[in-house]
Amino acid sequence: MCLDTYRSENYIKTGVAFVTGKFNISTVVTNEKSDWSVAPLNKAPSFICIKAVHRLDTIEIYYSLDDKNYIITRNAPLQDNCPVMVGLMAACPDGNGFEARFESFSVMHLPDQRRLEWLKQYQ
Protein backbone atom coordinates (compact mmCIF):
# COMPACT_ATOMS: atom_id res chain seq x y z
CA MET A 1 0.00 0.00 0.00
CA CYS A 2 1.26 3.48 -0.75
CA LEU A 3 0.01 6.74 0.78
CA ASP A 4 1.17 9.94 -0.85
CA THR A 5 0.54 13.53 0.28
CA TYR A 6 0.69 15.02 -3.23
CA ARG A 7 4.29 16.05 -2.52
CA SER A 8 7.00 13.65 -3.63
CA GLU A 9 9.04 14.23 -0.46
CA ASN A 10 6.26 12.87 1.82
CA TYR A 11 4.95 9.32 1.44
CA ILE A 12 4.50 5.98 3.20
CA LYS A 13 4.92 2.54 1.61
CA THR A 14 4.02 -0.59 3.57
CA GLY A 15 3.65 -4.28 2.83
CA VAL A 16 5.78 -7.41 2.53
CA ALA A 17 9.44 -7.17 1.55
CA PHE A 18 11.82 -10.05 0.88
CA VAL A 19 15.09 -8.83 2.42
CA THR A 20 18.22 -10.76 3.48
CA GLY A 21 16.56 -14.07 2.65
CA LYS A 22 13.43 -13.51 4.78
CA PHE A 23 9.92 -12.18 4.35
CA ASN A 24 9.32 -9.06 6.42
CA ILE A 25 6.55 -6.61 7.17
CA SER A 26 8.10 -3.44 5.82
CA THR A 27 7.23 0.24 6.17
CA VAL A 28 9.10 3.14 4.60
CA VAL A 29 8.16 6.59 5.92
CA THR A 30 9.46 9.57 3.99
CA ASN A 31 9.18 13.12 5.32
CA GLU A 32 11.89 14.72 3.18
CA LYS A 33 14.21 11.92 4.44
CA SER A 34 13.31 8.23 4.54
CA ASP A 35 13.46 5.68 7.31
CA TRP A 36 12.64 2.02 6.97
CA SER A 37 11.36 -0.44 9.55
CA VAL A 38 11.07 -4.20 9.10
CA ALA A 39 9.62 -6.97 11.24
CA PRO A 40 10.58 -10.51 10.18
CA LEU A 41 7.91 -13.12 9.49
CA ASN A 42 8.49 -16.78 10.41
CA LYS A 43 7.54 -17.98 6.91
CA ALA A 44 6.20 -16.74 3.59
CA PRO A 45 2.60 -15.68 4.20
CA SER A 46 -0.13 -17.05 1.92
CA PHE A 47 -1.77 -13.63 2.28
CA ILE A 48 -1.40 -10.55 4.42
CA CYS A 49 -3.83 -7.81 5.39
CA ILE A 50 -2.61 -4.24 5.84
CA LYS A 51 -4.57 -1.53 7.61
CA ALA A 52 -3.58 2.14 7.81
CA VAL A 53 -5.48 4.44 10.19
CA HIS A 54 -4.98 8.21 9.98
CA ARG A 55 -5.54 9.83 13.40
CA LEU A 56 -5.06 13.61 13.47
CA ASP A 57 -1.30 14.06 12.78
CA THR A 58 -0.25 10.41 12.85
CA ILE A 59 -0.83 7.26 10.85
CA GLU A 60 -0.94 3.82 12.42
CA ILE A 61 0.09 0.84 10.29
CA TYR A 62 -1.22 -2.62 11.19
CA TYR A 63 -0.85 -6.07 9.62
CA SER A 64 -2.68 -9.37 10.05
CA LEU A 65 -2.02 -12.89 8.85
CA ASP A 66 -5.64 -13.98 9.44
CA ASP A 67 -7.71 -10.76 8.90
CA LYS A 68 -8.84 -10.97 12.55
CA ASN A 69 -5.90 -10.20 14.80
CA TYR A 70 -4.11 -7.01 13.77
CA ILE A 71 -0.66 -6.10 15.08
CA ILE A 72 0.60 -2.52 15.01
CA THR A 73 3.89 -2.29 13.20
CA ARG A 74 4.37 1.45 12.87
CA ASN A 75 3.12 4.78 14.17
CA ALA A 76 4.40 7.63 12.02
CA PRO A 77 3.80 11.36 11.61
CA LEU A 78 1.47 12.43 8.81
CA GLN A 79 0.46 16.03 8.33
CA ASP A 80 -2.91 16.87 9.87
CA ASN A 81 -5.72 18.06 7.57
CA CYS A 82 -3.82 17.13 4.43
CA PRO A 83 -5.41 15.14 1.59
CA VAL A 84 -3.65 11.90 0.71
CA MET A 85 -3.68 9.55 -2.25
CA VAL A 86 -3.89 5.85 -1.42
CA GLY A 87 -3.11 3.03 -3.81
CA LEU A 88 -1.60 -0.38 -4.37
CA MET A 89 1.81 -1.17 -5.77
CA ALA A 90 4.23 -4.04 -6.28
CA ALA A 91 7.91 -3.73 -7.08
CA CYS A 92 10.86 -5.97 -7.78
CA PRO A 93 14.06 -3.91 -7.78
CA ASP A 94 16.14 -6.92 -8.83
CA GLY A 95 15.68 -10.52 -9.88
CA ASN A 96 13.14 -12.02 -12.28
CA GLY A 97 10.06 -10.49 -10.72
CA PHE A 98 7.16 -12.17 -8.97
CA GLU A 99 3.40 -12.51 -9.08
CA ALA A 100 1.37 -10.21 -6.82
CA ARG A 101 -2.36 -10.37 -6.26
CA PHE A 102 -4.41 -7.70 -4.51
CA GLU A 103 -7.87 -8.52 -3.17
CA SER A 104 -10.55 -6.74 -1.14
CA PHE A 105 -8.99 -3.28 -1.32
CA SER A 106 -11.12 -0.56 0.21
CA VAL A 107 -10.79 2.94 1.61
CA MET A 108 -13.13 3.85 4.42
CA HIS A 109 -13.68 7.32 5.84
CA LEU A 110 -13.64 7.33 9.64
CA PRO A 111 -14.46 10.52 11.53
CA ASP A 112 -11.44 11.77 13.44
CA GLN A 113 -11.38 12.90 17.06
CA ARG A 114 -11.93 16.56 16.14
CA ARG A 115 -15.08 15.79 14.11
CA LEU A 116 -16.47 13.50 16.82
CA GLU A 117 -16.05 16.26 19.42
CA TRP A 118 -17.75 18.77 17.08
CA LEU A 119 -20.68 16.38 16.54
CA LYS A 120 -21.06 15.88 20.30
CA GLN A 121 -21.05 19.62 20.90
CA TYR A 122 -23.56 20.53 18.15
CA GLN A 123 -26.10 17.69 18.26
From TrEMBL:
One of its GO terms (molecular function) is hydrolase activity, hydrolyzing O-glycosyl compounds. This is DUF1349 domain-containing protein. Signal peptide: none annotated. InterPro entries: ConA-like_dom_sf (IPR013320), DUF1349 (IPR009784). GO terms for biological process: carbohydrate metabolic process.
